[in-house]
């Protein structure tokens, strides 16, 4: 699903991939505490699942499968936001700023996937 706004193209498959990639870069900035290591593992998994499920939705065999994958992608974005919020960034202001950006992106991805899901529901 690509959409053009002005001279920029927004490809949700690329955007979800970029989110997962940016989460991985963010994790490298973190202080290695027990909590951060565990929360980082979780956010790496869930952020990758946002992208993987969106890709699977685009390859869905049915409308029902598409809706399910979009719903899972939304759920994984929500989970990613939780894990991001749990990570301790107190000692690293640059990590705190990056975390806020990623939380914002997770929220936007949740909103987009939710809107796609609702539009699918209305189409039936």
Tags for this model:
124 residues, mainly alpha, de novo design (two linked rop proteins), two-stranded antiparallel sheet, elongated
Number of domains: 1
Radius of gyration: 15 Å
Tell me the series of helices and strands, N- to C-terminal. Answer: EEHHHH
Reading off the top of the CATH hierarchy, the class is best stated as: Mainly Alpha
Q: Share of helix among residues?
A: over 70%
* Count of runs of 4 or more consecutive helical residues: 4
CATH superfamily: 23S rRNA-intervening sequence
In what range is the share of β-strand residues?
A: 5-15%
Largest sheet: 2 strands, antiparallel
Q: Give the integer mean of the pLDDT values.
A: 92
Topology:
Blueprint lengths: L1 E4 L2 E4 H16 L6 H25 L4 H24 L6 H30 L2
Antiparallel strand pairs: 1-2
Helix pairs in contact: 1-2, 1-4, 2-3, 3-4
Model description:
There is one protein chain. The radius of gyration is 15 Å and the shape is elongated. Helix 1 (12-27) runs antiparallel to helix 2 (34-58), helix 2 (34-58) packs antiparallel against helix 3 (63-86) and helix 3 (63-86) runs antiparallel to helix 4. The chain is mainly α. Helices cover 77% and strands 6% of the residues. The chain has a single domain (11-122), classed as 23S rRNA-intervening sequence (de novo design (two linked rop proteins)). The protein has a two-stranded antiparallel sheet with strand order 1-2.
